[in-house]
Amino acid sequence: MSENVFLFVPNVIGYMRIVLALAAFYFMTTNYVITSFCYLLSGLLDAFDGHAARHYNQSTKFGAMLDQLTDRLALMCFCIGLSVIYSEYYFLFQLSSALDIASHWLHLHQSNLSGRSSHKLIDLSGNPILRIYYTSKPVLFIMCCGNELYFCMLYLVYFTEGPKFLFDMGLFRLLMYISLPIMLVKALISLVHLITASKNMVAIDMEERSKSNVDSADEGF
What we know:
By secondary structure, the chain is mainly alpha-helical. It has one domain (about 5-210): Up-down Bundle (Four Helix Bundle (Hemerythrin (Met), subunit A)), CATH 1.20.120. The protein is built from seven helices and two strands. The protein has helices at about 10-25, 30-55, 60-85, 90-115, 130-135, 135-155, 170-220; strands at about 165, 170. A hairpin with a 2-residue loop joins β1 (about 165) and β2. α3 (about 60-85) runs parallel beside α6 (about 135-155) and α5 (about 130-135) packs across α6. It starts with 8 loop residues before the first helix and ends with a helix.
């Protein structure tokens, strides 16, 4: 009996993430409790699909692409919602979304052209920042969770400060301040992503052009 990749456990988790994200977007301007719960849960499930793929031996190219698209588009749509309630900062949300999508798309495309099975399998002789980012699971987890936490807390403080926690400061605002440096570092990593992937793409171009010129020269004899 042939396997149905669409029904692999990590892919089913991916579908659940999409449903939760859509619910969060739908209620974003009307119910901050449902929105924040669904968005954070969707992000939390991202930590389980990879484990499920390894546990059940169900790692697939479709699953990897589904995971990437869900991550990128979920954050982009959330930023669109934030640009509505924080309209004076819409340009910053546009820049954040553009940098996030462009850097990951180019890095993923470059990885595929390089023959790597995953965008996370980088050349360890490459950029040290990306090497740490992709080879240290705690770093990757903190960066991704901290980034999502910042945007979610930024959303929540528009409606409520949350319970008083420290120095009469609301819990949501405190978490927003704590996660702010992580978000900024994540943005810096995305910029490094973009620059490194661009250089790697050019290196691939140069290698192909060099090979083409050699072949053309050989045909001339």
